[in-house]
Every structure is written in structure tokens, then in C-alpha cells.
Specification:
Blueprint (H helix, E strand, L loop, with lengths): L2 E5 H11 L4 E4 L6 H12 L6 E4 L3 H13 L4 E5 L1 H16 L5 E6 L13 H5 L6 E4 L3 H16 L7 E6 L7 E5 L3 H7 L23 H33 L6 E4 L6 E5 L3 H14 L4 E6 L1 E3 L3 H8 L4 E6 L10 H10 L7 E6 L9 H14 L9 E2 L5
Parallel strand pairs: 2-3, 2-4, 4-5, 5-7, 6-7, 10-11, 10-13, 13-14, 14-15
Antiparallel strand pairs: 1-8, 6-12, 9-11
Helix pairs in contact: 1-2, 1-6, 3-4, 6-8, 9-12
Length: 390
């Protein structure tokens, strides 16, 4: 596999091309634009045998994806921020109707005020739409997981749409060394889709029809069971991907956690910055580790408990604010996952990096020390906003 220096957005387009997608329906929005520009060029130049549908909005983009997926076409799109928010209504339809659409989300803060910079507020706004959500740490993970996403989504045990999240600008516009898989290898790993519920003019059906109260709960329960059960397929896919390409992924990845008294947990590209802080703190004699949460939906309860079981303090760094609620949505989920355990770490929640606010390794070190100070204190705040100007 050749390793090339390439912008991560370009790598997303290449991954979608290698997946032999049939349909792209997308509307450009910063910082996602380079992804769909590249795909449009590939289609126009004849390098990708696919239909590119230029639409008038992100709502229309996802609506077009519904129609394409319903016919059995391998379907891809990409968006960010307000675009993802505009899609919101249709996202529920895509997952409830079990369409295996893959979407790259270049995470960007939701307004107001208007921000083009990255945080995870857009991802958190769609966490309950029933999609599988995977967060990438670097460009290689983005490339690999676009390919994996199609295999996961199209597995007949799953048949659910997948979002692959990459931090806007931190990843989308960065040039990184990425190993580009050979087409033959991808073809072997990712067979052509066979959608079992495809529309057939000879057998007309109603799709997404009216659901009376006496069936609605059962329908939602079935959806939840399918999404929860998809975790097994995600893990199998990542194992088989590693066997072929030599890069293995897991729902939550621990770094220097074996003897850690304190573990810091985060999602996305700033995991690599936090890793540097962990190494620096280790050099100063602190027993600290890093947990990188990669699979956000379905949530990896058992894996989280295993990684943090020996820690006394768990510091969760959220890049989104649950306004008026318990601070960070990830910290809230983590506390829920650990609540019933007899022995569990004291969870300290920080909200940081909003609207692209930079967090340096020294900033993470500051959060470590402040988190240790707050741990175990009665009556402490539910969370702290890191970096607020006093």
C-alpha cells in the first residue's frame, strides 16, 4: 500500500471511490466542501462511475440519499454543522427505514455565534437519530473507517446508516501521511452491496407508512435492538480489517492505563494532543493514562468499564456543552455507564475546545491537576468550563 502525503478530505473522497459508491448527493458547507468537490471532479472526469446529485440543501441531500439507498445503490454523502442540523429530520428516517447510507461529518460548532471551527456540538445534536457514530483520531483512521463504514452498514445483521466523524480543520484540511489501500484489496474486503429490501417495480410496496400507536413502540424497540447489536459487527469488521490491512481499531482504546490512578477520556483528533500531555505527566511521575472513545453509538459500556476499572479518577473532556444540563454529554453517558458499579472512579467533567478554542498539551496538564483537585470533593460543580476568560 502506498503512503502519500494528502489532505484528509481528499483521502475521504478516495476512500469513497475505492468503495465503488453508486450515488453521491451532497451540498457544500465548510469544512466539508473539499470532500464533495473531489467526488464531483472524480465523477465528471470519468474516474468514478457514480451519479452525483447536486441538491439545493442538506435536507434535500439526505432525502436524495434515501431514494438512492432504497433502490440498493451504495450511497454516500458528507456535511457539517448547520448542514447536519438541517438534515436532522431526515436522519431519523434513514435509520428507522434501515438504509445503509455512509456519511462523513467534518465536525464544526453550531451557531450562534457563527463559527467555522471545530467542536462536537453538531455530532451531539444527532446522537439519538439512530445512526452508528464513529470518531476518528487522525487521517488514517478517517480513511480506514470510511471503507469499514460501508461494510458495517451493509451487513444484513445491521442495515443501519453510519457517520464517520472527523474534526473540521484539525483533520479535514490537514495534510497527513496516509496509506492508500489498493483497489483489489478493498474489493476483496468490501464486496458489492446486496440490499435485501430493495425497491422493485414488479413488487410495489409502501415504505415509511403511517404507524399507529399500537405498533410504534415495538418498531422503536426493534430499531434500538438492531443498533445495540451492531456493536458486535463493528468489532468483527475492525478485526477483519486489521487482519487484511494491519491496522486494528477498538470501541475504546486505552493508552498507559494499566497502572493509571487517573485516566483522561476524550474523542476525536485532540486525543493525540492529550497523549503528549500524558507522556509529559508520566515523565513527572504521575500515574495517568488516556482513554480514546472511538465508538459513540452504539455506546461501548462493557469496554469502557474494562478500561477504567482500576482507576481512582476519570477525567472526561467534552468538546460540546449540554446547555442547562450536566455539562458535557460524553461525561453524562460515562457516569451513567458506571453508575451501578460497586467500585468506580470518581468522574470529573470538563467542557473545553468549544468553537475551535485551542487546547495545548499544557492545557491538558492543567485539567489533570484541576481534576485531581476536584475529585472526591462534596458539593463540587457538575462540570467546569475550561479556558473561560475571567
Amino acid at each position: 500500500m502506498p503512503r502519500v502525503g494528502i489532505e484528509v478530505s481528499n483521502a475521504v473522497a478516495i476512500a469513497a471511490k475505492l468503495a465503488n459508491i453508486d450515488v453521491v448527493a451532497a451540498y457544500p458547507i465548510t469544512p466539508q466542501t473539499h470532500i464533495v468537490e473531489d467526488l464531483a471532479s472524480l465523477v465528471a472526469n470519468g474516474e468514478l462511475d457514480a451519479s452525483y446529485i447536486p441538491v439545493e440543501s442538506e435536507h434535500s441531500a439526505m432525502s436524495a440519499c434515501l431514494g438512492a439507498a432504497a433502490t440498493g445503490a451504495r450511497t454516500f454523502t458528507a456535511t457539517a454543522s448547520q448542514g447536519l442540523a438541517l438534515m436532522n429530520e431526515v436522519l431519523f428516517v434513514a435509520s428507522s427505514m434501515r438504509f445503509p447510507i455512509v456519511m462523513a461529518v467534518a465536525n464544526r460548532a453550531l451557531s450562534a455565534p457563527i463559527s467555522i471551527w471545530s467542536d462536537h456540538s453538531d455530532a451531539m445534536s444527532v446522537r439519538d437519530t439512530g445512526w452508528i457514530q464513529i470518531f476518528a483520531v487522525n487521517g488514517q483512521e478517517v480513511f480506514d473507517n470510511i471503507i469499514c463504514a460501508f461494510r458495517i452498514a451493509e451487513d444484513h445483521r445491521v442495515l443501519l446508516p453510519v457517520m464517520v466523524h472527523l474534526d473540521g480543520f484539525y483533520l479535514s484540511h490537514m495534510i497527513e501521511p496516509i496509506e492508500i489501500a489498493e483497489p483489489a484489496e478493498v474489493d476483496k474486503f468490501l464486496p458489492s452491496p446486496v440490499y435485501p429490501l430493495s425497491l422493485d417495480p414488479a413488487k410495489p410496496v409502501t415504505m415509511g407508512g403511517f404507524g399507529l400507536p399500537n405498533i410504534f413502540t415495538e418498531f422503536k424497540k426493534a430499531h434500538d435492538v438492531a443498533l445495540t447489536g451492531a456493536k458486535v459487527v463493528v468489532e468483527q469488521c475492525w478485526q477483519e480489517f486489521g487482519d487484511v490491512f494491519g491496522r486494528y481499531y477498538s470501541p475504546i482504546e486505552g493508552y498507559r492505563c494499566e497502572d493509571a490512578r487517573v485516566i483522561m477520556l476524550i474523542m476525536g483528533s485532540l486525543s493525540e494532543t492529550l497523549r503528549s500531555a500524558v507522556d509529559a505527566l508520566r515523565g513527572k511521575g504521575e500515574k495517568v493514562g488516556l482513554a480514546t472513545l472511538r465508538l459513540w453509538r452504539p455506546f461501548p459500556f462493557a469496554e469502557l468499564r474494562k478500561v477504567v476499572k482500576k482507576a481512582q479518577i476519570l477525567i472526561v473532556v467534552d468538546r460540546a456543552l449540554a446547555t442547562g444540563g450536566p455539562g458535557g454529554p460524553v461525561a453524562s453517558e460515562v457516569k451513567s455507564a458506571l453508575y451501578h458499579l460497586a467500585q468506580k472512579p470518581d468522574v470529573v467533567s470538563f467542557v473545553a475546545g468549544l468553537g475551535g478554542r485551542d487546547i495545548s498539551p499544557s492545557g491538558f496538564e492543567e485539567m489533570f491537576h484541576r481534576g485531581v483537585e476536584l475529585a472526591g470533593k462534596r458539593g463540587k460543580a457538575e462540570y467546569e468550563m475550561f479556558g473561560v476568560r475571567g
